[in-house]
Specification:
globular, alpha/beta, 231 residues, two-stranded antiparallel sheet, nine-stranded mixed beta sheet, 25% strand
């Protein structure tokens, strides 16, 4: 049976269609999920896309965390059963929902950054990165104004010790993120937040590479490795 990956649309989402296309290119069925419906439609995994949910009023992701759909998503993700990938604004929503530690703040330059960006994948044990090799460098797109990842030293040390730093920026730090962190995971490895956009690097014609497709292919490998429940 083909895996069904939900892609959430909030008011202000910009990259939901791109994420759905990436899911389809990887071989899964993208399932549209509406922020106002408390229904995950039985999907196997969920992508929270980039954009400006609810206009990013108050604080990026701060309003989206209270969406009816998030009331269903948060407990399922926290239990370790539902894989969730939050990209850019999606990462901010996961942090605001306390599914991931830390916060995303204004870029150190106080300017919106839009560039092709090399990342080094550091954790290949998650549901969304198992298709990469540890230390592999990938070229994707970074476009954000509040992409600076921050956390206290104790939290950063814990993430490092537990191997939960997902990826780091290679070369110049584009937004001032602490320790060059571009993405992190939760303790189960099912919830991943990534500031850059892998969904914009899945086709050679429209992106800087096809390196981002591995995030969406990895979830299929993860779902395929699950042990079926007894009938």
């Amino acid at each position: 049976m083909t895996a069904r990956v939900g892609v959430v649309t909030f008011p202000g989402s910009l990259d939901d269609k791109d994420a759905a296309r990436a899911v389809a290119l990887a071989g899964a069925d993208p399932v549209p999920l509406w922020h106002g419906d408390a229904d995950l439609k039985g999907v196997d995994a969920v992508v929270l896309p980039g954009g400006f949910s609810y206009g990013d009023y108050l604080r990026c992701g701060a309003i989206a965390r209270f969406a009816p759909l998030m009331g269903e998503l948060v407990p399922a993700a926290r239990s370790g059963t539902l894989p969730v990938l939050g990209i850019c604004n999606g990462f901010q929503i996961l942090a605001e929902s306390h599914l991931l530690p830390g916060a995303l703040t204004r870029n150190a330059s106080l300017r919106f950054v839009n560039r092709d960006q090399v990342l080094r994948v550091e954790n290949t044990r998650t549901a969304w990165t198992n298709g990469y090799s540890e230390g592999q460098e990938v070229l994707v797109v970074l476009k954000s104004g509040e992409g600076c990842y921050v956390a206290d030293e104790e939290t950063l040390d814990r993430l490092e010790a537990e191997g939960r730093v997902l990826a780091r920026y290679v070369g110049e730090n584009p937004n001032g993120s602490y320790r060059g962190i571009a993405g992190v995971s939760n303790e189960h490895g099912n919830v991943v937040g990534l500031m850059p956009h892998p969904e914009h690097a899945v086709e050679a014609l429209t992106g800087p590479s096809t390196d981002g497709l591995g995030f969406f292919a990895s979830i299929l490998t993860h779902l395929g490795s699950r042990t079926p429940e007894p009938a």
